[in-house]
Amino acid sequence: MKKTAVLGFGNPVRSDDAVGIFVIEKLQEQLGTQENVTFFDMGSSAFELLFKLRGHERFIIVDAVINSGEKPGTLFKLPASAIQGSIQDDPLVFLHSLKWDQALSYAKKMMGDSFPEDITVFLIAVDDTRLEIGMSEEVTEAGVKVAEKIIQEVCPNPDFA
């Protein structure tokens, strides 16, 4: 089984934008520590965490997407071609607002030839990013669905006993 890094992006105090962090928390709660899976809360200290991606052969990314034109809670799974097209040579970032495409750009520079080709991105449509704690019911349900999909991918036969 490939060593997999699951990265959840978002801001826990911006309502539905917290969904990536929510998925990481759900996965940690349901799976605990796994030998071949590492969970990364990319909501804070994202640059420091990027260095810990070395040695992973696969990335799974979860983030919110605003202005998608779809109702909140709609799930998107990006094709590999869209992901590779999002990796920029020199992305403009702000230290506290690193997004998944920018993180991949920096990870690719830091990892060089060991950067994995196996990358999956799950995006969840949101329209509420107000400064408040707590997510909408639709986005919470979508986060649970994404967590279930990731569990199926990284642990085909999970043992929750």
Question: Summary?
Answer:
This protein is α/β, with parallel strands linked by helices. It is 34% helix and 20% strand.
Strand order of the largest sheet: 2-1-3-5-4
Main sheet makeup = 5 strands, mixed
Summed up, the helix count is 5
E-strand count? 5
Ranges with pLDDT <50 over ≥5 residues?
none
Gross geometry: globular
Q: What integer is the average pLDDT? A: 84
Class by SSE composition: alpha/beta
* Series of H and E elements: EHEHEEHHEH
| Strand residues, percent | 15-25%
Q: Level of helix content?
A: 25-40%
Cα Rg? 15 Å
Q: Distance between termini? A: 21 Å
Overview of the structural elements:
The chain is α/β, with parallel strands linked by helices and 161 residues long. It is built from 5 helices and 5 strands; from the N terminus they run E-H-E-H-E-E-H-H-E-H. Helix 1 packs across helix 5. The model has no long low-confidence stretch (mean pLDDT 84).
Summarize the topology.
Elements: E1 4-8, H1 19-31, E2 37-41, H2 46-50, E3 58-66, E4 75-78, H3 80-86, H4 100-111, E5 118-126, H5 137-154
Parallel strand pairs: 1-2, 1-3, 3-5
Antiparallel strand pairs: 4-5
Helix pairs in contact: 1-5
